[in-house]
Design goal:
Helices cover 17% and strands 47% of the residues. The protein is an alpha/beta fold and 287 residues long. This is ESPR domain-containing protein.
C-alpha cells in the first residue's frame, strides 16, 4: 500500500511539472504571436531557443532600475534588452548615482541589434560602467568615471559632460562632441573620435596606444596626449594639440588646425595646411 501511495505521489508531481511547463509554453507562445513579424529563419530559431531555455530552466532576465532619481544610488545591475518587450532596446536614465553596472546589448541574435542604453543627465554620476555588445552610454552633461568600452560598445560625450579615466578596448568606440575628456586610454583596435561642436571639447591627458585610432575634428583642445597609434586631425575649426607626444609607432596626420609645445620622438608627423610651433623633433619622419 505504501508503494502505491508513493507511486501516485510521484505521478502527481510529474504531472504538475508538465502542467507548469505547458502553461509557460502557452504564455510564451502568445507573447511570440503578438510580436512583430520576424524576417529571418535565424530570428525565428533564436526566439524558439529562448522560449525553451525559459521553459526548462525557469530563467528570466534580471530587471534593472529604469530611472535613477537624484539623491539615490544603484549598483551591480545589468542593463539589457527585455526579451519580450518588442521595442528592441532598454534604457536607464541617470539623475543620481550608478556604479558597477554592465550595459549589454544583443547584436548576435538580432538584426538590427537590440540596444542597452544608459543616459547620464546633468547632475548624474556613474562609476565603473562596462559597455559592450551594442551597449550605449550617452553622457548628457553628467559625469562618467572609469567607463570601460569594448566589443561593439559605444559611449558619447555631449552637453558639456565629463568623461574621466575611461578605457576603450578592442571593438569599443568613444565619441566626444562637447565637454571634458579627463585622461583616456585607447587600446589596440579601439577608437576615439572627436567631432567638437560650438561648445568644444577639451582633452586632458591619456594615450592612443599602438593599433588604436582616432579622428579629431571640430572645435577641440587636446592637451598632454601621448600618440602611439594613428590619429588624424582634419578640421577647419582650429583643432589644437598642445604638449602632445608622438612615440616610436605613432602617427599624427594634421591636415588642419595646429600643434604647439609638443615632442616628436618617432613615428610619422604630417602637417598640411596647419601650424606647428615650439615643437621638438627628436626622431621620426616629417612630411
Amino acid at each position: 500500500m505504501l508503494i502505491r501511495v508513493q507511486k501516485k505521489r510521484n505521478q502527481a508531481g510529474a504531472w504538475s511539472v508538465v502542467a507548469l511547463h505547458a502553461s509557460r509554453f502557452i504564455y510564451f507562445y502568445y507573447c511570440l504571436k503578438e510580436t512583430k513579424p520576424m524576417k529571418t529563419t535565424k530570428t525565428i530559431l533564436t526566439k524558439i531557443v529562448h522560449i525553451l531555455i525559459v521553459i526548462f530552466t525557469g530563467n528570466t532576465q534580471a530587471s534593472f532600475t529604469e530611472t535613477v532619481a537624484e539623491g539615490t544610488t544603484v549598483s551591480g545591475e545589468i542593463v539589457a534588452p527585455q526579451e519580450w518587450d518588442g521595442s528592441g532596446h532598454s534604457t536607464q536614465r541617470v539623475f543620481g548615482t550608478v556604479t558597477d553596472t554592465i550595459l549589454r546589448g544583443d547584436s548576435q541574435n538580432y538584426s538590427p541589434p537590440n540596444w542597452a542604453q544608459q543616459d547620464v543627465f546633468s547632475g548624474g554620476y556613474t562609476n565603473n560602467i562596462t559597455v559592450e555588445n551594442t551597449g550605449n552610454q550617452s553622457i548628457f552633461g553628467g559625469t562618467a568615471e572609469n567607463t570601460v568600452i569594448k566589443d561593439k560598445g559605444i559611449a558619447t560625450l555631449k552637453n558639456q559632460g565629463i568623461f574621466k579615466d575611461g578605457k576603450v578596448y578592442k571593438g569599443g568606440f568613444f565619441i566626444a562632441q562637447s565637454g571634458t575628456v579627463d585622461n583616456i586610454n585607447v587600446y589596440e583596435n579601439g577608437r576615439f573620435d572627436i567631432s567638437g561642436n560650438d561648445d568644444g571639447v577639451i582633452v586632458e591627458g591619456g594615450e592612443i596606444t599602438h593599433g588604436a585610432t582616432g579622428v579629431f575634428m571640430g572645435k577641440a583642445r587636446i592637451n598632454n596626449l601621448k600618440i602611439s597609434g594613428d590619429v588624424a586631425g582634419a578640421s577647419r575649426d582650429n583643432t589644437h594639440f598642445s604638449h602632445a607626444y608622438i612615440g616610436q609607432s605613432g602617427r599624427l596626420m594634421l591636415s588642419a588646425g595646429k600643434i604647439t609645445e609638443s615632442t616628436i620622438e618617432g613615428g610619422l608627423f604630417s602637417v598640411i595646411h596647419s601650424e606647428a610651433s615650439d615643437t621638438t623633433m627628436k626622431g621620426g619622419a616629417l612630411r
